[in-house]
Amino acid sequence: MYTLAEENYLKAIYKLSLTDDSVSTNQIAAELCTKASSVTDMLRKLADKALVNYARYQGVSLTKAGNKVALNIVRKHRLWEYFLVEKLNFKWDEVHDMAEEMEHISSNELINRLEEFMGYPTRDPHGDPIPDSHGNFRAHDLKPISTMPVNAGGIISGVRDHSAAFLQYLEKQNLVIGRYITVKEIITYDNTVVLQMENKELQISHEVANNLLIAL
Amino acid sequence: MYTLAEENYLKAIYKLSLTDDSVSTNQIAAELCTKASSVTDMLRKLADKALVNYARYQGVSLTKAGNKVALNIVRKHRLWEYFLVEKLNFKWDEVHDMAEEMEHISSNELINRLEEFMGYPTRDPHGDPIPDSHGNFRAHDLKPISTMPVNAGGIISGVRDHSAAFLQYLEKQNLVIGRYITVKEIITYDNTVVLQMENKELQISHEVANNLLIAL
DNA sequence: ATTTAAATTTAGACTTGTCTAAAATTTTTA
DNA sequence: TAAAAATTTTAGACAAGTCTAAATTTAAAT
Question: Which of B55, B106, B62, B93 is nearest to B169 (CA)?
Fold first, then answer.
């Protein structure tokens, strides 16, 4: 149906659209590690196929059709990640690249059966919501720890940074999804956050606090 | 490591090598539904990478390295087919095209874990042997029903034709892997084979008998 | 042993997706 | 608001893989 490149562009635009209303050529180029000129070429093609709204120099957004395609790729990515972690026992920092390939397996029947096989999970191993076969999902209502006031508590429920390095750090500190934490103190000097965990106290940098999400 | 096209060519050459010692350009073109000129181009590239032995006009064969790559693709294909049938409940005539995509997922760690998850199966849903992670497998020792003498019996253990049409026909007649049959009669007029099954008699054409394999 | 036929290869072109370098547009800044 | 800077687009080129048509080589047939 769609080429590998098209799917990757749609997914990138989808991702960038979560934080910005209109997405720029350079943003996409950075996201896909490619050059702005390549992006321009592809945007023209996607616009011809009515998958994006695009006017020269004006940025780009997904059409309804483009959004549907992108969501389906996200759905596949997250279901495969869940499979890799829950069934094949990979760690949450190991699955991204594999899922990046598997999300392009075309069959929807396959992904629906996989979803059923796994019991209709709603979150992937990083806490991100898994769209159902109609593209519906419960949106994140999560906030970074860095926004929490002192004495507030909550359950670790997601990450903003999906890099292996960050995930490995979290694993090591036992900052995993499902864990309850409270903010004990915020050190004003550099916004280091002091967390109270079940049985220990832990200091995390503002950077980390900013990338670790809590359900209040 | 290797492109999609390279992998498909290596797999095709592997498959054709099972029946012929040296494989011709036209055979490959037919197998891949492409043109002879495209094949020639690719053979040069594969020869440059030392994956095939190729001399102009002289046919082609896999090198040791090429064979290893091809076997790994076959391994992945058959493990994914097993997964689709045994875990996701697809029928044996539905899985080929999906596995055709999944065999190109690159991670070997993934396929090894999948193999472990499924309990190290040795045959795919069509009875074809699954190479282990070193490329070793118990070779078929199967013969088509068309070569059996009257009164001989055996267990249905594989197929030569993997087309959905053939597999659906077999399913309908209950000619599935594991079933015991005996040859009751061979009608000399057109080599129709009369099979005795558990509780019924069944006539199959020579064509069918030729594509259905028995372990004696 | 030629000629004919079949198979294979070469030559040149096309598509997809990428790149660099230069031109055009928008945004920022003074 | 006009110059400078940043962004974006265009133009032209390249690599992978494919194709058609023509040329070459091998195999088959008289």
Answer: B93
